[in-house]
Amino acid sequence: MDDGEVLKKRGYIMGINLGEGSYAKVKSAYSERLKCNVAVKIIDKKKAPRDFLDRFLPREIEMLARVKHYAIVKTYEIFETSEGKVYIVTELGVQGDLLEFIKKKGAIPEEIARKMFNQLASAMKYCHELDIVHRDLKCENLLLDKEYNIKLTDFGFAKRLSRDDDGRVILSKTFCGSAAYAAPEVLQGIPYQPKVYDIWSMGVVLFIMVCGSMPYDESNIKKMLKLQKEHRVHFPRSKILSVECKDLIYHMLQPDVTRRLCIDEVLMHIWMQEPKAVSDSMLTKPGECSQSQIRSLFGKESISQPSDNEQVKQEIRHEDLENLDTVSDQMQRTSL
């Protein structure tokens, strides 16, 4: 029985292909019960690698069934057929993902980026309070609903934290994620605090949101790691950003894990608070309207067009990073 027939029996009319990998694909579908479009992730267990089936798929299913937050995609149904296919039916990001949006429209003005990033931070606080870590935060995994609200998705690398007898978090040794969003401790293959790793990735996301470019050039992993460890964050001169925004990004991209912000400190940061009035530090580029509606802004074409470099979404999942050349070989890149 093909996927269309399987879904039809469950009350879904299959639509277009949204993405496809070696053992999984994502389709759009219309739910006759919900009266709306949904996304269906279809995993072929016969083609999937053993470590994925034994570790990552069960974790993903557990996480999706557990998390319920306004800024996390809703999971409507998970079922498996006798033919060895798993179907995960979720909310559809009708406006695509954040990376696609930024590549098309350019950097997001701070007052709108603040609202969107607050949604992401709220979702991460919810997860971290449940001792759930995502470990693959990136713009591609932030979907946009019809009102351009953030919806966190893809819990394929998520897990619940393990603790020792004294209640201390057991460090993670599974080095996963994408090169552009990976913290220096992960790039070096050092056992890491997963929540702290999530914060670094959030810092990369915010940089991309307000700058429209990547904070580091991941085409040279060794050079990127050197810049990260020296705590060097170069903001584009063409972007006029507030001191508060730069400060938040700088403290999330902190290579010293003992000094990197936690999620509560991110949410309490001054930049995250809605300004009561426009301050001198909240500067905008000429022609930007700081009070415009999100929808009206997003309906406009961006003045500055992104490069045509290919977007790459391949993830890494490896237990031992012997050297940085290995990282460079196994991590592909996301270009803006």
TrEMBL record:
Highest taxon listed in the record's lineage: Eukaryota
The protein, known as: non-specific serine/threonine protein kinase
Swiss-Prot/TrEMBL catalytic activity: L-threonyl-[protein] + ATP = O-phospho-L-threonyl-[protein] + ADP + H(+); L-seryl-[protein] + ATP = O-phospho-L-seryl-[protein] + ADP + H(+)
Coiled-coil parts of chain: none
Pfam families: Pkinase
Keyword Ubl conjugation: yes
Binding site for ATP: K41
Regions of compositional bias (Polar residues) in chain numbering: 325-336
Needed co-factor(s): Mg(2+)
InterPro entries: Kinase-like_dom_sf, Prot_kinase_dom, Protein_kinase_ATP_BS, Ser/Thr_kinase_AS
Record has S-adenosyl-L-methionine as a keyword: no
Gene designation: LOC106551619
This protein's UniProt keywords: ATP-binding, Developmental protein, Differentiation, Kinase, Magnesium, Metal-binding, Nucleotide-binding, Phosphoprotein, Serine/threonine-protein kinase, Spermatogenesis, Transferase, Ubl conjugation
Family statement drawn from the similarity comment of this UniProt entry: Belongs to the protein kinase superfamily. CAMK Ser/Thr protein kinase family.
Example of a GO biological process term: intracellular signal transduction
Phylogenetic lineage: Eukaryota, Metazoa, Chordata, Craniata, Vertebrata
Region called Disordered, residue ranges: 299-336
